[in-house]
Amino acid sequence: MRTQSAAKRLFFAHALLPLGWARDVIVTIENGVITAVAADSSSADAEIISGVALPGLPNLHSHAFQRGMAGLTEIRGAAQDSFWTWRQLMYRFIDTLTPDDVEAIAAFAYVEMLEAGFTSVAEFHYLHHDENGAPYTNVAEMAARIAAAAGETGIGLTLLPSFYNFSGFGAAASIHGQRRFVNDPARFLALLEKSREAIKSVDDAAIGIAPHSLRAITPETLNDVLKAVPDGPIHIHVAEQTKEVEDCIAWSGQRPVAWLLDRMPVDRRWVLIHATHMTDEETIGVAKAGAVIGLCPLTEASLGDGIFEGPRFIDAGGVFGVGSDSNIEITAPSELKQLEYSQRLAYRVRNAVARHEGESTGRALYEHALVGGAQASGRNIGALAVGKRADIVVLDTAHPDLCAVTGDRWLDALTFVAGKSAISDVFVGGKQVVNSGRHVKRASITERYRRVVQRLATL
């Protein structure tokens, strides 16, 4: 049983609150939750934190183990490289990963997330079984290692065990490279229950499910799982690649997003990851359903996915957040910048995500990602407000790119100029996990990660 903690009072000269910027703000925290927020306050009896306080940004999509293969897929093959050739390299990378390896890689990725402004992660977890495809004695052994990495680093966690049943549309048999992912509905539900037990050791963790993609399940197996899991977030990869769209049409006569909207109870529980290739009708349909679009701009650029239709979705009232996906470069500001720059390239305009005159693009991006990330995580996060988890990112106002600006310009400088170098301190659940830009356990976690990647390089 967790012990109750004494109230903590943090004083910030500036903070971004739900109604906008405020000065001289005291945030009171008990048991990891914000119990009071008071602006125009005295700093007496409070711990003074230098800098600008922002709500911590949720990372709504991560495959932590892929951090260990970052940089290993940048040599062109004999054929035209694509997502599908990248996937073959990923299958080879996982051949020998042990539970210890996965925990070490995840912990290092989570350290980088925290240092770069992400205070929580929705871990889309599909690496389940041993190198031969057999379940571990604890069917959720790998999920338990993800939970252990989150607990060690202090990052907030939404664990999303992934349901992966088949290789392609129409129940195509799984292939050798997928052997560590695959479960039938019964074994997946057993894995889910063990995963629930695994996250009990992590403060304020949540759990959901992640049907991997329409190509990896069937309508029947998806319905079996959905009936057994009546609550919690539901994340699914969808319409990431044009080939996936074409294959879905060949299988069902419909595009993947249209198929989901017509045949599944898509609502606020759902998070459609990537959704790169949607028609206008699908875009409006997702927005009306209240589902979140999970964008991973750096990974989508890396894999050549295409460009999401941002302005149209925003104008339809759509909700989106950002994630780090393949973890090739872990930085919250750069995900936001890449999203905006992709829209500028597609539409040949500037300040594309900001939708009215005088609106700050940095703030628009950040606040959209807070709302969508919190909804996608299924946790009470995403704002400096009473009842929310005390996840706080502190910007260094002495940073050369921030020292001469105020208000929304801080967010513009963070996103488009300084990046993660402007982040000084990070609190998760009121506990400081990053001090002066460095995670409190960086040294030991980095050394463990280094040993893993050096061993993998010799195989």
TrEMBL record:
Cellular component aspect of the GO annotation: cytosol
Cofactors: Zn(2+)
Annotated keywords: Hydrolase, Metal-binding, Zinc
Keyword Zinc assigned: yes
Residue span(s) of domain Formimidoylglutamate deiminase N-terminal: 14-44
Pfam family, one: HutF_N
GO terms of molecular function: deaminase activity; metal ion binding
Ranges for domain Amidohydrolase-related: 53-433
Entry keyword Cell membrane: no
Name of the protein: Formimidoylglutamate deiminase
Organism this protein belongs to: Tardiphaga robiniae
